[in-house]
Amino acid sequence: MTQFTAPLAIKLRLKGGSGPNANWHWEIHDADAKVIKTGSAVGPEHKAFATARIAKEKLEQTAGN
Fold first, then answer.
1. What Cα–Cα distance (Å) separates residue 27 from each residue in 12, 37, 65?
2. How far apart are CA 7 and CA 30, in angstroms?
3. What is the pTM of this model?
4. Domains of the chain, residue spans
5. What are the tens digits of pLDDT across the range 35-52?
6. CA-CA-CA-CA torsion for 29, 33, 39, 44, nearest 10 degrees?
7. What is the structure's pLDDT at 31?
């Protein structure tokens, strides 16, 4: 079981495109700036962030069990 001592951080990077065709790469980092999970999303920034936030919440939920 993995335990996180500090909140996880989400980092977004625009990889290409613009508007509805933007390609975003997201990473979830722990307190030591170590990458825990990565992914990508296509669309506006707020949708890419929401995708990363859901992944972060799932990680936090599994770490809490």
1. 7, 6, 23
2. 7
3. 0.82
4. 9-64
5. 999 999 999 999 999 999
6. 80
7. 87
